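Wait, mind explaining this?

_____
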Amino acid sequence: MDLEEKTLNSIQLYNGIIVKLYLDDVLCPNGIKAKREIIRHPGGAAILCINDNKILLIKQFRYPYKEIIYEIPAGKLEKNEDPKNAAIREFEEETGRKSNDLKFLGKVYPTVGYTDEIIYIYLAKNYKVTETHLDKDEFIETIEVTIDEFKEMVKDGRIKDAKTICAFTYYLLNVA
């Protein structure tokens, strides 16, 4: 069975700082025409850092959820930026740690129903401590938890962030 939808028309409804919103007309495999709302996003890079059996996390208030979220450091790709370079940059900006020794673990599609965002996940090794370079509207606290504490935080719902859970899963399947 053919599952692919064909784009008939695409109209940009919003051009934001980070995202663009489109309304597309598509032709479904059964011949029915339908609408699709798509958020175009430049993508991001995320960094899992495990050192001495401890995982480096950040705590950050995330406005859409109105709560503090535990997550691995990550950031948006700049136009035409290599994801690995973005990971190196974001790791230092958010945590004050610099590593050029990154291993690609995989990529995730965080919300497949309405955005084309891709997050590239890296494992950081052999880092040195530098300084954070937070944006003026960015407030982050860095913490370290043991792998067992991390697992308990996922289990009890304190860690809900998809990229963080996926990064650890990639780590378990490819590295540990």
Observations:
- The helical segments are 83-95, 147-155, 162-174.
